[in-house]
Amino acid sequence: MQRTVILASTSRYRRELLTRLRLPFDVQSPEVDETPLPGETPHDLAVRLALEKANAVAARFPEAVVIGSDQVADLAGEALGKPGDHARATAQLRRMRGQTLIFQTAVAVVCHATGFVQRDIAPVRVVFRDLTDDAIEHYLQAEQPYDCAGSAKSEGLGIALLSAIDSDDPTALVGLPLIRTCQMLRAAGVNLL
């Protein structure tokens, strides 16, 4: 019996990525407080939130295999979240120019009925070019990436902001590390092929 797969996320980016697997899935909002805990590292925040999102939805759908994910931009140990608006995105990109960030992209897969729980993280090292204020403004006007951690979309024009990307899971920077997700889904008994 193939269990229902649920993506515990309202992110259109994660939904689009999971669609690549040609696997039927539902989407549910996890409704989890994403506030960092005192002293929590960006790595630990991403892993905790991915697992909390998966568990929140799995509590409502215990027979399903639930995927939770979270991404935190890590600038020298400081978590940078989604900017939400133009002013905050401008400030983030100004701080990030010429810097190396680690995008901590975590994924968790759980099934409460079987007791299955796995989680992992796919860190992505990203080097930003030394951007001018004009380049930042042009980019933000063109793409308006206010719902993206780190104020940039590498899958679009945001690639022009970068000088290097280093990752072993190419979809992790977009928001869902599909290699790790596939490994976990197979381990949970989901037939992908």
Characterize the structure shown.
The protein is of the alpha/beta class and 193 residues long. Helices cover 31% and strands 26% of the residues. Strands 1, 2, 3, 4, 5, 6 and 7 form a 7-stranded mixed beta sheet that branches. α3 packs across α4.
Secondary structure elements and pairings:
Layout: E1 5-8, H1 12-19, E2 26-28, H2 42-60, E3 65-75, E4 78-80, H3 86-96, E5 100-111, E6 116-128, H4 133-143, E7 162-166, H5 178-187
Parallel strand pairs: 1-2, 1-3
Antiparallel strand pairs: 3-4, 3-5, 5-6, 6-7
Proportion in β-strands: 25-35%
Please outline the major beta sheet: 7 strands, mixed
Question: So what's the overall shape?
Answer: elongated
Radius of gyration: 17 Å
Distance between the termini: 15 Å
Q: Number of helical runs?
A: 5
Structural class: alpha/beta
Would you identify the regions where 5 or more consecutive residues have pLDDT less than 50?
Answer: none
Mean pLDDT: 96
Following the backbone from N to C, one meets helices and strands in this order, namely EHEHEEHEEHEH
Let me know the number of strands. 7
* Helix amount: 25-40%
